[in-house]
Amino acid sequence: MTTVTPPSQAIIRPEKDTFLEEENPFESMMSRFDYAAQRLSLDPGLYKVLRSPEKQIIVSVPFLRDSGEVDVYTGYRVLYNTSRGPAKGGIRFDLNVTLDEVKALAAWMTWKCAVVNIPFGGSKGGVVCDPASLSNAELERITRRYTSAIIETLGPDSDVPAPDVNTNERMMAWIMDTYSMHKRHTVTAVVTGKPVEMGGSLGRREATGRGCMIVTREALRRLRMPVEGTRVVVQGFGNVGSIGAQLMEEQGMSVVAVSDKSGAVYNPKGLRIREVIQHVRQHRFLSEYKEAEHLTNEQMLTLDCDVLVPAAMENVITSHNAGQIKARIICEGANGPTTAGADKILDQNGVFVIPDILANAGGVTVSYFEWVQDRGGYFWDEDTVNQRLERIMVQSFEEVAGMAGRHGINLRIGAYMQAIERVAAVHRLRGMYA
Questions:
Q1: Which CATH superfamily is domain 206-359 in?
Q2: Apex CA 103: angle with CA 137 and CA 31, to 5°?
Q3: CA–CA distance from 36 to each of 176, 382, 394, 412 (Å)?
Q4: Read out DSSP for 152-215?
Q5: Maximum Cα–Cα distance for the chain, whole Å?
Q6: Stretch (H or E) spanning 33
Q7: Can you tell me the distance from the alpha carbon of 241 to that of 237, in angstroms, rounded to the nearest whole number?
Q8: Are 309 and 301 in contact (CB under 8 A)?
Q9: What's residue 21's pLDDT?
Q10: Are residues 284 and 260 in contact, defined by beta-carbon separation less than 8 angstroms?
Q11: pLDDT at 190 exceeding the cut of 60
Q12: pTM assigned to the model
């Protein structure tokens, strides 16, 4: 029988966390975890286990530049929790990658997989580099060297990477090939987000954006707001933002603004998203798009709209700008776009936030489908993938909304409580190996 401790005794926070640094992604994420754990009256011992990453790996990534010079980058891989199954999480290549960021993202993956109830734990990885300054051959050498450095943790039953910021299908193919060469046989299930020709799943590329569209639609229904004509602003126009915007437009929503790192484009009557996507394919950035008004990224976040979709990086909505947000709904397409300090302001202003660990879980859900298909050697058509994704996303939204309603809390804390409860239940059943 589980012992339930009184809320006042349930959480013993480390002293170093007394003063939260708002933009530290790990501590910002953990502040939500702490509150959810408190509401669940989580056992103090189990709290300590769930607050600690299982494994943190830092590696050097030496590689040969095209010029013949040798350079060395730093790589990370964090396995946060594997109690429910193999670790699952992307790999990003970016100059801003830090261990704290990777820890936070690995923890988010743990809760995300539990929210949608798929049998994975959470992990994340990254290499500190600027991919835009590297040739394709250099990127391949870095990817393969990083893979070989962390190869002991990788495997279909232990840790399964996927694409993330500045990584893609081709890099997943390099990882799969490197791993397979070491194992002396082809292992397709070691990564997801691969090319379809190599065991990737149909519908995987669109899955995160599709999941955002589904939960936004469900939120509109719950708030009794019409889907048709809903004004949407999408911050970030990469894979998630562009596909999410297109699918929302197809549902009848009006996407009035989108942005990338070069700035934002805005048309109060609605952009033609297919044309914008085509422009980006041809010109790479939105800065040259002529058919709309141009704004800064900061300006577009505070536009008058019904739905705001932050789909780029962490910490774009903070205590400094949260009070200026005019959207009724925020759907977090990115991981950690809203700081803990901003949450309080958004709550006070009645903004309905669909948290990242629910909103963008479509990607990991279809990654799970890909892993299942690889291991079974039997592949589904795209309609089957999309139908199964729809069912899981709608059910997960209802479960999180139900948890939030029963406890009188917002959807973010409801999602954390749902996830922590599921992970904690498995830890209780498995016991502790000592």
A1: NAD(P)-binding Rossmann-like Domain (3.40.50.720)
A2: 145
A3: 37, 36, 22, 9
A4: TT-BTTTEEEEE-TT--HHHHHHHHHHHHHHHTS--GGG-SS--GGGTPPTTHHHHHHHHHHHH
A5: 65
A6: helix 25-39
A7: 4
A8: no
A9: 60
A10: no
A11: yes
A12: 0.91
Which of 124, 290, 326, 344 is catalytic? The answer is 124
- Here the tokens at position 200 are 């990737």
* Residues 419, 357 contacting (CB under 8 angstroms): yes
Contact between 56 and 78 under an 8 Å Cβ cutoff? The reply is: yes
Shared fold status for 53-187 and 206-359 = yes
* 3 state SS of 181: helix
Residue owning tokens 């990242």: 356
The pLDDT value recorded for residue 8 is: 34
Amino acid (1-letter code) at residue 70 = V
CA distance linking residue 201 with residue 282, whole number of Å: 27
- Say how many residues make up the chain: 434
Q: Which two tokens stand for residue 406?
A: 């029963």
What digits encode the pLDDT tens for the residues 375-412? 999 999 999 999 999 999 999 999 999 999 999 999 99
- Cα 262-251-372 angle, rounded to 5 deg: 85
386 to 28, 32, 97: CA distances (angstroms): 33, 31, 32
How many angstroms separate the CA atoms of 262 and 280, rounded?
Answer: 11
What pLDDT does residue 3 have?
35
DSSP codes, 231-277: EEEEE--SHHHHHHHHHHHHTT-EEEEEEETTEEEE-TT---HHHHH
Is 328 in contact with 253 (CB distance < 8 Å)?
Answer: no
- Average pLDDT of span 262-291: 93
DSSP letter at 295 equals: E
Task: Give dist(CA 331, CA 306) in Å, integer.
Answer: 11
Architecture of domain 53-187: 3-Layer(aba) Sandwich (3.40)
Cα 363 to Cα 379: distance, rounded to the nearest angstrom:
17
From its phi and psi, is residue 85 left (phi > 0), alpha (psi between -120 and 50) or beta? left
How many helical (H) and strand (E) elements, i.e. helices and strands, does the chain have?
A: 15, 12
| Residue 269 is among the residues annotated as catalytic for this protein | no
Strands 55-64 and 87-93 come out as unpaired
Q: Where are the domains of the chain?
A: 53-187, 206-359
